[in-house]
Write a structure and sequence with these properties.
- The protein has 281 residues and is α/β, with parallel strands linked by helices.
- It has two domains: 3-67; 89-280, Rossmann fold, CATH 3.40.50.
- It is built from eleven helices and eleven strands.
- Strands 5-4-3-6-9-11-10 form a seven-stranded mixed beta sheet, with helices on both faces.
- The radius of gyration is 20 Å and the shape is elongated.
Length: 281
């Protein structure tokens, strides 16, 4: 089989599951992982026969993709803010939106020194690791309720030799006592249970539910907890950055304003949807 034939196979089998551009991206990620080909390499070698043992690996990956398994879990890695992050079902797959949140935190605070930062609901550790790497001199703490996700986060941190104080704790009912922080960042669960039926199986069947969903009866539960945590542990003038459900931009903004935060601001995502909140203590 040639790369061109494999590309056609990917398109034909996955087009009903994913948009065409995403199929192309999945194909590239797979070929890059197995054959170490860049996009130029793929183009230049499109009519070249794939070695049979590599072909078997590629076809097996396609078979797993057909069962809606996320490509990031199959490959065991994804790129996040220029870093390779280990991915498996212990934690959510890092999203481009979360990468944008991380970019906002890093760029808005790049001229500040010796920051104390905490990442609430750290999951794979992607935010804390990227912030630690690019806001040099910062002291990072990260909390997570899931033991398995916490282990994955530690494994990811060890890849980049960044020191992060990982703590098992529940932001909804914290048991630890913390020092003061300059920045709180969080990508908490925010998708309502009622939204499950419009989501793709590669999310609902494979990614950890507790990291995704909240009860419809109390969709802002984590933002109240973050707000309360900030009132106790943020330094004066300290900042909160959090990812939010696009549906609740105004309500989350009002929640932080009502709690006494200043300069509360909503940021849009790539699709011009309300996606992030910033609030100042």
């Amino acid at each position: 089989m040639t790369l061109a034939e494999l590309n056609s196979l990917f398109r034909n089998q996955l087009v009903s599951m994913y948009p065409s551009q995403e199929v192309e991206n999945i194909f590239f990620l797979t070929v890059n992982f197995v054959l170490k080909y860049s996009k130029i390499d793929i183009h230049l070698n499109s009519e070249k026969e794939i070695p049979s043992y590599k072909e078997k690996i590629l076809v097996n990956i396609l078979s797993r993709l057909n069962r809606s398994e996320p490509v990031q879990y199959i490959l065991g890695e994804t790129e996040f803010y220029g870093l390779k992050i280990k991915t498996d079902p212990r934690a959510l797959i890092p999203r481009p939106e979360t990468e944008l949140l991380t970019d906002i935190v890093i760029k808005e605070n790049s001229d500040r020194n010796s920051l104390s930062i905490i990442d609430l609901c750290t999951g794979s550790g992607c935010i804390a690791i990227a912030v630690s790497k690019y806001l040099t001199g910062s002291v990072l703490t990260a909390i997570e309720i899931s033991n398995s996700a916490l282990e994955l986060a530690k494994e990811n941190a060890s890849l980049y030799q960044v020191h992060i104080n990982f703590i098992k704790d529940d932001i909804l009912s914290p048991e630890h006592h913390y020092g003061k922080f300059d920045i709180i960042v969080s990508n908490p669960p925010y998708i309502r249970n009622s939204e499950k039926n419009i989501m793709h199986r590669n999310v609902t069947d494979y990614e950890p539910e507790k990291a995704l969903f909240v009860e419809d009866s109390d969709p802002l539960i984590f933002y109240r907890a973050i707000s309360y945590f900030g009132k106790i542990y943020l330094n004066k003038g300290g900042l909160i950055y959090a990812e939010i459900n696009e549906v609740f931009g105004k309500k989350v903004k009002e929640l932080f304003r009502s709690a006494g935060y200043k300069l509360v601001k909503i940021y849009k995502d790539f699709n011009n949807k309300d996606r992030f909140i910033k609030a100042k203590q």
